[in-house]
Write a structure and sequence with these properties.
62% of the residues lie in helices and 1% in strands. Strands 1-2 form a two-stranded antiparallel ribbon. Helix 2 packs across helix 6. The longest helix has 20 residues. The termini are far apart. The relative contact order is 0.07.
């Protein structure tokens, strides 16, 4: 039980309390708009909160009492949390996100619910690539990243292409996989029907779990077969927040490669740490000019911000492909 007051709660836990006070449909609509990292963090917080006393609830929602009404104790249900996330994101995506979240002691860790990776790869290798792609969409990314390298090289690219194109996985596909491999193969958390599947995001999660050399080889084969799909995958492999991994010298090259107005637009709503990291790569005068531009700018549409960030990341990937900068602080180029 969390009974030490709101002061002992993290901001995410406070947000979890507020969401649990809303109607399920309202909370689901909010969760559906979160990115995967935000959703995973919130899901973990909701599962951590087993019981919140009335005093803590009062403190958390003090500024919202006009909207919420009289506060009441909050008791989180793991079943309720999983149901809420499934309604917001679909069964498959919800299971992916909550798989890494801490659960009650009686739950078996997801990693222990799987048969040996080598055996799993051996079984899947006998199946059609489309069925393999469907199975990959149901696996936690860490498991899938262990399985994919054990498949034939050409099959690896084919399966990830099919996975990236997946938008919906019906109950028939899930039932087929369960029938073929039994309950020991798939985590208990997965249940039919499964609706939405974020195919490109799932493929990217798997690629990020592979060694840089394996990921690059698969991406090259995908590019040879479907350049448009390869570009969609590539754009999600390195996102705007990854600029935090660029050192000061490389940041100067990135800044020189983009227009100041594009950079100012891209920094709208960016985390303060990322803004500071980028400004540190600029001269004092240029940094002050950029800050003044952002302060004086009119409100902008999120689409314009996203477009500016995409343009910057294209420049980053071009520089990385030329070997001029390195992302991630390692020796492998993106």
């Amino acid at each position: 039980m969390i009974a030490d007051g709101a002061a002992d709660m993290t901001p995410v836990q406070k947000a979890a309390v507020l969401l649990m006070l809303l109607e399920e449909d309202q909370s689901a609509a909010f969760i559906a708009d979160l990115d995967p990292v935000q959703a995973e963090t919130l899901g973990a917080a909701m599962l951590e909160i087993a019981d919140v006393d009335r005093g803590t609830t009062d403190a958390v929602i003090a500024s919202f009492l006009d909207h919420v009404g009289t506060a009441a104790p909050v008791r989180a249900s793991e079943t309720g949390t999983r149901s809420l996330f499934a309604k917001a994101l679909g069964e498959a995506r919800a299971a992916h996100i909550l798989a890494a979240a801490p659960s009650s002691p009686k739950q078996i860790a997801p990693e222990l619910q799987w048969i040996a990776r080598a055996r799993l790869a051996e079984l899947l290798a006998q199946e059609h690539p489309q069925l393999i792609a469907a199975a990959l969409s149901l696996m936690p990314p860490a498991v899938a990243a262990d399985v994919v390298p054990q498949l034939d090289a050409d099959v690896q690219a084919d399966c990830l292409m099919r996975l990236a194109r997946l938008e919906e996985l019906g109950d028939g596909a899930v039932a087929l996989i369960r029938e073929a491999y039994g309950p020991d193969l798939l985590p208990i958390a997965f249940a039919a029907p499964v609706n939405r599947v974020e195919g490109v995001a799932a493929a990217v999660d798997i690629l990020k779990g592979l060694s840089p050399a394996d990921a690059k080889a698969i991406q090259t084969r995908i590019s040879e077969r479907d350049d448009t799909l390869a570009q969609r995958i590539d754009e999600q492999m390195v996102v705007f927040e990854d600029l935090m991994t660029i050192d000061a010298r490389a940041m100067q090259q990135v800044i020189a490669a983009v227009q100041p107005d594009v950079l100012a637009m891209a920094l709208r709503g960016a985390p303060a740490t990322l803004k500071a990291h980028i400004l540190a790569g600029m001269s004092t005068r240029a940094a002050q000019t950029l800050e003044d531009t952002m302060k004086e700018a009119r409100p902008a549409a999120q689409d314009d911000v996203d477009r500016a960030r995409t343009n910057i990341m294209r420049a980053v990937r071009d520089l990385a492909d030329k070997g001029e900068i390195v992302l991630g602080g390692g020796d492998d180029l993106v």
